[in-house]
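Sorry, I am new here, but would you mind making up a protein's amino acid sequence and the tokens describing how it folds?
***
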Amino acid sequence: VQLVESGGGSVQTGGSLTLSCAGSGRTYFNWCMGWFRQVEGKDREAVATLDYRGRTAYQDSVKGRFTITKDNAKNTVYLQINSLKSEDTALYYCVFGDSYWGQGTQVTVS
């Protein structure tokens, strides 16, 4: 299992980004997936999850601004981020299941 993330970058407050995480090595049709983020010196926190039935859950601070989706045909999970705030600045990680992590992609909002 290998996960490759993309889509991070530097944006202005109020901007948008779409993060992608593509999995290889097998299919992930019924897997739980999620996005976490981490700021240096702080614990990694969950921001959005997608369970095997397709139900989503979001951290309160991102509700209405973040959307997690997946494309089973592409083995890819996405995180659409709108109305970015400075406090969204972090290293964002995707996770498949409970143990397969992406390498992280930096989001910087200024």
